[in-house]
């Protein structure tokens, strides 16, 4: 009886060890198969990304040997890059899978910034960074939205009186326009027409576009953006459908405060636009000149945006939702870099005046073609109080608020 028990125990022992051996063999076979499939799934030149890709070679070399060139490539310093990466890394980093390794968050950000800075097509980005083209089409909107989420607090309408006062003083000091709290404008972002969209995005320039509506403060920063309206809309139409319009109608600005816009916008108690027509009085011409000086803030903000992020220089060939992500990210980066980097906007980048009021154009005007403006909406009836508000400024600019050179500039 005892011998039978011993034999049974020995049999169970051998069976257990055999099972372990078979299991280990099976695991090794599966791992080998996975490794084989992984090698087959990822192209060799892509699999070498961490050794020979643009991030591992050129950008690494620029970062340590030529920071100025690195800044031209990324549109920010290595320190700014690291700061931004720390803010978004957790939201864009994915885990490795059995089939492939996840693209590092650092490379995702480098790909996206290169695309924003240059508009380089996905195929070239794929070759440079050794990342597949389908992956890049997913990386760019993902990272753009992550950037916007991290930096959107830098696009902010003032909430406190002292914040409005800073903007007001800025417009008055730089452009001699009192009680001004922003310049509003709308630009076409040229896109590739979506399938079956008809004339939905077709604008007066005979291209397809979406619209970026923005309110710009005294320091060339965007206080508010509205992104994604169809290209066939007017400034006035986009404006009236925006949340900014509703807030302005509800008394957003400080007492007697105004914003300035071009002829595409409606004349309001809080929104000044030029006198229309060509048969204008001297006082009306002076008002239009003074208004255009203040509006240079928005022209320059858009100009700097495009000169820094060249993706806007040509039609963006992505899905419309990705275009929205690109615009939001670029505007947020523009504001963030304006505050973080002293060299993002220099004195020569933007328009300025000499002692005689002669405009010296910013360097961006010779570097790029500006974004197309929205066409003028049909002229409507304006309230009497709005007309009176504009007339008050007209009279002020001819008396106590005049500048010595203004008559020279209108002839």
TrEMBL record:
InterPro entries: HARBI1-like (IPR045249), HARBI1_dom (IPR027806). It is found in: Nucleus. GO terms for cellular component: nucleus. The keyword Ion transport does not apply. Transmembrane segments: none annotated. One of its GO terms (molecular function) is metal ion binding. Its main location: nucleus. Its cofactor is a divalent metal cation. It comes from the Eukaryota. Keywords: Hydrolase, Metal-binding, Nuclease, Nucleus. The keyword Transport does not apply. It holds the Pfam family DDE_Tnp_4. Residues 184-335 form the DDE Tnp4 domain. Belongs to the HARBI1 family. PANTHER family: NUCLEASE HARBI1-LIKE PROTEIN, PTHR22930. This is DDE Tnp4 domain-containing protein. It comes from Parnassius mnemosyne (clouded apollo).
């Amino acid at each position: 009886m005892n011998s039978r028990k011993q034999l049974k125990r020995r049999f169970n022992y051998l069976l257990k060890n055999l099972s372990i051996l078979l299991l280990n063999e099976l695991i090794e076979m599966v791992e080998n198969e996975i490794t084989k499939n992984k090698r087959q799934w990822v192209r060799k030149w892509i699999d070498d990304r961490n050794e020979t890709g643009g991030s591992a070679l050129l950008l690494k070399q620029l970062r340590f040997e030529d920071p100025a060139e690195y800044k031209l490539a990324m549109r920010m310093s290595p320190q700014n890059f690291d700061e931004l990466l720390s803010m978004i890394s957790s939201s864009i980093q994915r885990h490795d899978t059995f089939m492939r390794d996840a693209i590092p968050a650092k490379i995702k950000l480098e790909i996206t910034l290169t695309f924003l800075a240059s508009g380089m097509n996905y195929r070239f980005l794929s070759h440079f960074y050794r990342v597949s083209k389908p992956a890049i089409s997913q990386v760019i909107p993902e990272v753009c939205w992550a950037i916007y989420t991290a930096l959107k607090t830098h696009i902010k309408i003032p909430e406190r009186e002292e914040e409005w006062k800073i903007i007001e003083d800025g417009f008055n000091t730089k452009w001699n326009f009192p009680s001004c709290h922003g310049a509003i404008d709308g630009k076409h972002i040229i896109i590739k027409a979506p399938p079956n969209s008809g004339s939905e995005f077709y604008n007066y320039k005979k291209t397809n576009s979406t619209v970026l509506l923005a309110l710009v403060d005294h320091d060339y920063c965007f206080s508010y953006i509205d992104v994604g309206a169809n290209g066939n809309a007017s400034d006035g139409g986009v404006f009236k459908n925006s949340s900014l319009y509703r807030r302005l109608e509800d008394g957003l600005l400080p007492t007697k405060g105004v914003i300035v816009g071009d002829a595409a916008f409606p004349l309001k108690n809080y929104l000044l636009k030029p006198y229309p027509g060509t048969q204008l009085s001297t006082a009306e011409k002076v008002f239009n000149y003074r208004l255009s000086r203040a509006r240079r803030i928005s022209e320059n903000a858009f100009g700097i945006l495009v000169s820094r992020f060249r993706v806007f220089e040509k039609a963006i060939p992505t899905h419309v939702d990705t275009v929205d992500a690109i615009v939001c990210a670029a505007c947020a980066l523009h504001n963030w870099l304006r505050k973080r980097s002293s060299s993002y906007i220099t004195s020569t980048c933007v328009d300025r005046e000499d002692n005689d009021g002669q405009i010296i154009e910013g360097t961006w005007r010779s570097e790029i073609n500006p974004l197309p403006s929205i066409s003028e909406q049909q002229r409507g009836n304006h309230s009497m109080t709005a007309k009176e508000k504009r007339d008050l400024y007209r009279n002020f600019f001819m008396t106590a608020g005049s500048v010595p050179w203004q008559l020279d500039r209108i002839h």
